[in-house]
Design a protein that fits this description.
Family: Belongs to the SEC15 family.
CATH topology of one domain: Methane Monooxygenase Hydroxylase, Chain G, domain 1
CATH architecture of one domain: Up-down Bundle
Shape: flat
Keywords: Exocytosis, Transport
Number of helices: 28
Organism: Monopterus albus
CATH superfamily of one domain: Dsl1p vesicle tethering complex, Tip20p subunit, domain D
Strand content: under 5%
Protein name: Exocyst complex component
Helix content: over 70%
Structural class: mainly alpha
Function: Component of the exocyst complex involved in the docking of exocytic vesicles with fusion sites on the plasma membrane.
Radius of gyration: 59 Å
Order of helices and strands: HHHHHHHHHHHHHHEHHEHHHHHHHHHHHH
Strand order of the largest sheet: 1-2
Length: 809
Amino acid sequence: MASMETAAEHERILREIESTDTNCIGPTLRSVYDGQEHGLFMEKLDVRIRNHDREIEKMCNHHFQGFVDSITELLKVRGEAQKLKSQVIETNGRLQDDGKMLISSMEELKQCRVQQRNIATTIDKLTHCLPVLEMYSKLQEEMKAKRYYPALRILENLERTCLPRAGQYRFCSIMAENIPKLRTQIRDTAMMQLRDFLESIRKHSDKIGETAIKQAQVQRSLDSSVSTQPRIMTGRRSRKEAAAAGVGTDSNTHGGSPVSEQDSGILDVEDEEEDEEVPGAQDLVDFSPVYRCLHIYTVLGLRDVFENYYRKQRRKQARLVLQPHSNMHETLEGYSRYFNQIVGFFVVEDHILHTTQGLVNRAYVEELWELALSKIVAALRTHSSYCNDPDLVLDLKNLIVLFADTLQGFGFPVSQLFDMLLEMREQYGEILLKRWNITFRQVLDQDNYSPIPVSSEEEYRLYTSQFPLQDPELEKLPFPKKLPFSEFVPKVYCQLKEFIYACLKYSEDLHLSSTEVDDMIRKSTNLLLTRTLSHCLQYAIKKKNVGLAELVQVIINTTHLEQSCHFLEEFISNITNVPPDTVNATKLYGTSTFKDARHAAEAEIYTSLNTKIDQFLQLADYNWVAVVQGGGTLAASDYLIDLMAFLKSTFTVFTNLPGNVAQTACMSACKHISTSLMQLLLDPDIRQISIGALHQFHADVKECESFARAGPVAGFQGDTLLLAFSDLRQLLDLFTQWDWSTYLADYGKPTCRYLRVNPHTALALLEKMREMSRKNNVFAQLRKTDRDRQKLIDTIIKQLRNLIAQHHT
């Protein structure tokens, strides 16, 4: 058994040796030597090796013939390779022999090329040296003749072109040493001339600006006489053409040899070309020194130094010019001086820009203008905010427009100035609104709120020329007659037109389209209507001691003003040449303004009327415990008769009001009377009410119904006005006729006779009557009729409470 296990273990180890990587075979072999049968394992290993050798031998025998065939083929290829090698060696020899002749020819060609290059270099050096000597000789002549600009041109050519080309020769070094001395002398002279020039333009800036603005004003006047449309600035084109001529002249100076004394000829050319279109800065300032300095510094290679110095000095002068005086806002002359200096400064800069090549460039001028523009706008905003006079603001606006047009003619963007003018337009509008607020209040305070009497045709035409009244029936009436409105209607209408004219004046020359002007005027007029005039009308309506007659006249006046709004629309369209039906056109809010004012007056009428009614009702003095009077008809209370008389006289005044206003006032008054009487019946302070008191109340309600039936105001259909007293009428009929069975039986049905009687109201009134009955029973306990009536009242109260509970559930 043990031998079988050993054999199996050895077989496993052999399989593992065959299948395991040689790097990992160590543990397997160790397990063999750890056992006792390693000799037996070696025998099995030898057997396994012999078996594998036999298998290898079989495999080799199987493939041997193919191997022999391959060796035979390889021997044949070796012979062919030997032949190819010999052919390659023979070809290479022939190629080497032919290449020796070619290399010899190339060496000869290389030598010829070197000689040719040396000859060309020598000719080139001589060509460069001869002009240097000739030019230096000419330089000496120019320096002796004190013609510095041609000498500088020669120096420039020598230093930048000729000397570098000539090379490092001794005579070139001597020439280079003498150049800086001449350059220093010329540079000092040029700087002195530049300082004199800067001082000159500083002194003349004010006068230059004044001249430019005057010429721009003349040009604008000429343009206005040719066309009524807003002028488009075209001076820039001629300025550019003149500048092109000036720049061309400058460029020629660099190509030729002009003398410094002829530099001012550029100004003469511009004088001829710009005599009528551009302010003649050259007439007041001699620009030739700056041109000479520019040329000299350019040739000296110090153009940047010259430009920086010039720009630095001009920036300092700009800061001085842009600093406004502290009292500039007090007079128009202060603004004018400020603008003249600024215009003069930039006219000079524009002239320099277009008559020099890069002394000041467009970017520098634009940067300077942006700085100036921000300071100008800030200064104008600050100083104009102190102004409360619309006339001064308007004059300042015209001055700013002239200032902007002048600079726009020189190509400076002035859109910010016009934007600021639009901002000032808001300030101007606010100042106008304040002035017109005072004017409207004066008109309203001085008005007598009475129709205007007219005694003659001339007087009638005078008023109709001030206000567009169109009433054919009124025109047919003989004189004397009365206009339906009071004095403040034509005055307010005229003031509205004056305000529109004032707005139009500000909109002129702002380079706005007709549509923009129309929109601006309409928006300002809307502010006047909705804010200023509306507040003034509200003030007139709400102030103390305004009677009903005055309120009625206010309604009539606002009605006519509302009807005139489309005439204002046409008026604005006529002066702006914009049709009122233009798309996106702003509509006037006058109709809504006058409607609001009329509604406020109507509400005030209703409130005042109700207040007056309350004053009459406070005089009511009912005997709530009165007994039933036998025989005859009860008369209405005195206070109520007086109230009805007051209402009749009041509604007579309402005849000129629109029908709906008079009807609403009448209905409101009747409802207020009905509600007040109902509240009087249900007053919790009144704890007892007798049937006699209800009879008196019934008589007063009949008086109110008689008033309503008489139709104090026309326009009511049928008995519409009586509906205001229907709640009281049904309640009093229920109690005076004691028709409780019908009420309780038909309650809730649409055909109920007492449909408007609320059970809560009936219960409250019935409890007051029960309280009165109880008080009487204290003194008459033995009277059977009173006891029965008391029981009946208690029964009805109980039924009413059940009815209320059922409907509540």
